[in-house]
């Protein structure tokens, strides 16, 4: 099936098998390997990308379902050599250890802060329940999110 | 994990979806948000040969005042239920339970109709719809029919939906003054409920109580409701929470542990809704 997807502001048109998952499409067809496939069962959130601005797990979505939508991956977040404020906050607060969950975590945070611009610590922890960090580095991740939210409102 | 090959049909209207179901019969499966079906297909526990995508039927995505009830389109996403001002005002139990489904990413894709039609006894929304005596409006090639929630869930992943039917709308009563509580017990934040209990109290004497994952279908806690109607205290009524249940046994819990959880969670739900 022929699909047309805007990936990081660039329109792509590809012929794909209906069973191709969005995560595979992004990594193997579009060559954007920043998005990770972790548990592959919709639990860990490493594969999180934005679909029309909202976080989704790309391992549990077909590429054909994304036809006509706009997808943003971690590669599309920084602009003109400048980190996105969430990326900058993760670096500043060391919101990562091994880094495997980071791309998905950052995308989930961008979506969360869009919906809840001034979250409490509890909002952040609940809002990220779909993203697992196996290094268990949650403390600094939460600090980074709170800092990014504060930065965005000043 | 990649699903087995299938033919993909994207329905632009409900009639197109129904035509595809008639044409392909039992081989076809409707795809809504895909949050339950796609994981099953990836594990090859489900291998439909035709997938009819109804995820774009935006005319089935709404929360409306239906006069004596609230009408919810089957393709309404959990996220849109969770943030619905109309539900918050008129039927807050649905809004609150929708916010407990999965995680943000799941709630951005999953739909109330998909959750109901999937018929999983561990799902959150079917139990609250059962407690509210919801009505499901179902469309088929022969026309439309209404199914009471109490007649809808027939067995594990089995519902009263026929292979050529589509769930179009869910109707719930207006309960502006009701208090409700959903108590969900799980080990990891985003998991399915090991056991869940929902209580809705429209007035201090009566309560509607339903259970998640205590049988092959969602269940009304009939014995608890009867005890409360007879004047029992919450603590005494909650002791009946596991009556007439058939809880599953799995890695997470034995049937005995689930029975204990049901009694505790029903008590907490009733207390919180009082």
Distance between the termini of chain A: 46 Å
Please give the largest β-sheet of chain B: 5 strands, antiparallel
Poorly predicted ranges of chain A (pLDDT <50, ≥5 residues)? none
**Unreliable stretches of chain B, pLDDT < 50, 5 or more residues?**
none
- The structural class of chain A is alpha+beta
Q: What does the radius of gyration of chain B come to?
A: 18 Å
Q: Count the DSSP helices of chain B.
A: 12
Mean pLDDT of chain B comes to: 96
> Oligomeric status of the shown chains?
heterodimer
Largest interface: A-B, 33 and 28 residues
Helix content of chain A: 25-40%
Note down, in words, how this protein is organized.
The complex is a heterodimer of chains A (154) and B (274). With 154 residues, chain A is of the alpha+beta class. In chain A, strands 2-1-5-3-4 form a five-stranded mixed sheet, with helices on both faces. In chain A, strand 3 and strand 4 form a beta hairpin. The longest helix of chain A is centred in the C-terminal third of the chain and has 16 residues. The mean pLDDT of chain A is 95. With 274 residues, chain B is of the alpha+beta class. In chain B, strand 13 and strand 14 form a beta hairpin. The radius of gyration of chain B is 18 Å and the shape is globular. At the A-B interface, strand 4 and helix 3 of A face strand 1, helix 2 and helix 6 of B.
Topology, pairings included?
The complex is a heterodimer of chains A (154) and B (274).
Chain A: E1 2-7, E2 10-15, H1 22-29, E3 48-51, E4 54-57, E5 70-72, H2 85-92, H3 102-115, H4 121-127, H5 138-153
Parallel strand pairs in A: 1-5
Antiparallel strand pairs in A: 1-2, 3-4, 3-5
Helix pairs in contact in A: 2-5
Chain B: E1 7-10, H1 14-24, E2 28-31, H2 37-42, E3 50-53, E4 63-65, E5 69-73, H3 78-82, H4 85-90, H5 92-98, H6 104-109, H7 112-118, H8 124-131, E6 135-140, E7 143-148, H9 149-152, E8 153-155, E9 158-159, E10 165-173, E11 179-185, E12 195-201, E13 208-212, E14 219-220, H10 222-229, H11 234-238, H12 255-272
Parallel strand pairs in B: 1-3, 2-3
Antiparallel strand pairs in B: 4-5, 5-10, 6-7, 6-10, 8-9, 11-12, 12-13, 13-14
Helix pairs in contact in B: 5-8
